[in-house]
Design a protein that fits this description.
By secondary structure, this protein is mainly β. It is built from one helix and eight strands. Bound molecules: copper (II) ion.
Length: 211
């Protein structure tokens, strides 16, 4: 009897053992994915941060001047300087003129930088690269070299600063560098063609780019 029980116990033990779940199989290694792509390149090391260079300062604005001298024929004593500085939308013009007759005077850029003639006729007509009709600077049609009038006080001095649009101090067709600058005896009526009935040329200067 004892022997039988032992065998039974053994058998039970065996059956217990065999009923326990088999040890979990190890996870299969992932299949290597077939790919024709080359293996990824080793990451290049990030470049050393370059110290940002100071941005180059903007070039100084182009400038030019015209030194006026009286014309011989007019026997005027008109002198002065006109300074030009290129700005975003044109050229800023600053005039300091002396020995004018009190009142209004026409002043223009003329097409040639030649003041050699006694009446400055050598400076040619108005600088007018666009072929526009003569008119006031803010009129729809006007010469690029036209600045309206300059008003001299009783002391004969005239100063004026304003921006003339549509001209440059560069090397393009609208540049006034190398042109003539003329002050006239009379007022520009801003309508007579082609030059505003402005009378004699009393002073002339050549617009020269500043070095
Ligand atoms: Cu003129």
């Amino acid at each position: 009897m004892k022997h039988t029980l032992f065998v039974l116990a053994l058998a039970l033990g065996c059956s217990k053992k065999s009923s326990s779940p088999p040890p979990a199989a190890p996870e299969p290694a992932p299949e290597p994915t077939a790919s024709t792509e080359p293996p990824p390149a080793a990451p290049t090391p990030a470049p050393e941060p370059v110290k940002a260079e100071e941005p180059a300062p903007p070039p100084p604005p182009k400038t030019a001047t015209a030194t006026l001298a009286p014309t011989k024929k007019s026997k005027s004593k008109v002198t002065g300087t006109i300074s030009f500085k290129e700005v975003a939308d044109g050229v800023e013009v600053t005039a300091n003129i002396e020995n004018l007759k009190a009142g209004d005077h026409a002043w223009h850029v003329h097409e040639k930088g030649d003041c050699s003639a006694a009446d400055a006729a050598s400076a040619g007509e108005h600088f007018n690269p666009a072929g526009a009709a003569h008119g006031a600077p803010d009129a729809p049609a006007h010469h690029a070299g036209h600045y309206g009038n300059l008003t001299a006080g009783k002391d004969g001095k005239a100063t004026k600063t304003f921006v003339m649009k549509g001209i440059t101090l560069g090397d393009d067709a609208n540049s006034i560098v190398g042109k003539g600058f003329i002050v006239h005896a009379k007022k520009d009526d801003l309508k007579s063609q082609p030059a505003g009935n402005a009378g004699d040329r009393v002073a002339c200067g050549v617009i020269e780019r500043a070095p």
